[in-house]
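One such given next:
>
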Amino acid sequence: MSQAITEAIVLAGGLGTRLHSVISDKPKSMAVVRGRPFLEFLFDHWVSQGIQHFIVSTGYRGEAIRDHFGAQYKQATISFVHENEPRGTGGAVKLVLSSGCLFSDQALLFNGDTWFPADLRELNTVTVSEPVCMCVTDVSVNERYGSVLIGNSNNVVGFGLPTHGPSLINAGVYSLHAEGLMRYLLSMPDCFSLERDTLSNLVENFALTFSRQPAPFLDIGTPDDYLKAAAILPIK
């Protein structure tokens, strides 16, 4: 049985190019929803789930995140690892794991521009036998995302597959076995995609497990989906 996860890596370095018309010069994770930065809603959920330390990977306008949150949010401490140039999601994770900011060998990873209020207790029950466990969820219509195929032994057997109807998708929340994952990342360049380059490799090696969870999913990466956030995010 896995140990309780109390640390989380937050990928918040995206440029938010498609959102410039509605959020101006803010990082995507700082887009304002009902008067609050989107990232505050994520922190609220994960603090309530038991996260005690956030490690925020920043890039474009990262100072806006640091200035707003500082070193603590509620009872959780915050560390920052800044990219001087874009590294992609994989490069960002590799930089964080190399930074010394993560104190335990197991951590949560989530995207700072995606809402998926997963149950951390469910992730905590997953046996840590593989480097990554991916949260997946069912959607009735899939217009933007590749679908996920799962096997009978708790492994993901297909990833990023084109599907337009009802499907299972990657929810952008993961639990990581840091030492095991780093073995896959050490040989990678500074800039690469976690999804395309690493997770697909894990699938080929039967080393990506999943936690199937029913929860509302929203990626605010487009103006239309950003405008949906006010109706989906919980009232404080």
